[in-house]
Design goal:
It is built from eleven helices and eight strands. With 263 residues, it is α/β, with parallel strands linked by helices. The protein folds into two domains: 156 residues, Rossmann fold (3-Layer(aba) Sandwich); 98 residues, N-(1-d-carboxylethyl)-l-norvaline Dehydrogenase, domain 2 (Orthogonal Bundle), CATH 1.10.1040. The protein has an eight-stranded mixed beta sheet with strand order 3-2-1-4-5-6-7-8, with helices on both faces. Helix 3 links the parallel strand 2 and strand 3. The protein is elongated, with a radius of gyration of 22 Å. The relative contact order is 0.09. The structure holds NADP nicotinamide-adenine-dinucleotide phosphate. The site of NADP nicotinamide-adenine-dinucleotide phosphate has 23 residues, from helix 2 and strand 6.
Length: 263
Amino acid sequence: MEQAKKIKISIIGGGNLAFQLARVFTSNGMMPSQILVRNKAFWDDFEPFCNEVILKTQQLEACDLLFLAVNDDAVSELAKQVKLTNTLIVHTSGSLNANAAACPENKYGVFYPLQTFSKVRFPDFNEIPIFIQAEDEKSFELLKIVAGKISKNVQLANDPMRKTLHVAAVFVSNFSHALFAMADEYLKEQSVPFAHLHPLIKETVNKAIETDLYHGQTGPARRNDIKTIESHLKMLEQHPEKAEIYKMLTSYIYQKYHRDKHE
Ligand SMILES: NC(=O)c1ccc[n+]([C@@H]2O[C@H](COP(=O)([O-])OP(=O)(O)OC[C@H]3O[C@@H](n4cnc5c(N)ncnc54)[C@H](OP(=O)(O)O)[C@@H]3O)[C@@H](O)[C@H]2O)c1
């Protein structure tokens, strides 16, 4: 894997994923050469993990691999602004087409790590599936080397597969996080600690991974306990948004177990 250390990597982006990539590449002997962070307030975060933090695309030096770890909407425009040649430019998005970063002077690709990243958590990259895709075989091989240096789970995914995974990831991660936050908000109003739910959260996640999802569902909608559902909705009268979500998910579970299916 000495090959990987000779690959010159740069990153554009000062957010969650850019930070985690910079950190994990550095700790695996592939410190990024330059990282473009347009908000100087975040430069301190990135300085330990690259040779140089820069402000503008004009400052980018030649590199083998450039990551665009930026908002999805910025990817295409940025790829066109970059004045490099013979560089493999990859975006990190689950939902953009692979060629979103295409431009005539460079090759394009995708490097999509399927995990939720923030700057304050340090997930074990080795366990994170990284879905890669590239314009040609040589670029794909380069990505395979770099991804293989930080994860033992590197896979090829075409656009439809990656986009499908992204929708599923929004359900399991972003939506469940929003539901946790909703529960926390509700409990705070009644001065009940969220920590009482920690074992339940852990068991729910473990059960989803380890057992059959259909049979694992529990709760009032699953049992069709109508009086309990009504009493919950009464308790949520002062929280119309939460009540709406409660009704929507209750109806989803009810349809699944009591209308469409004869168990
Ligand atoms: N976080 C995750 O869990 C995760 C997981 C897998 C893939 N991804 C993908 O990774 C990409 C980045 O996500 P993120 O979570 O890291 O987002 P983020 O934390 O919001 O960071 C986005 C960064 O992009 C910068 N940026 C936006 N437009 C730019 C431009 N024109 N020039 C230079 N910098 C620009 C932003 O700068 P400002 O702060 O100045 O606006 C910010 O630093 C997205 O494509 C996302 O789909 C994210």
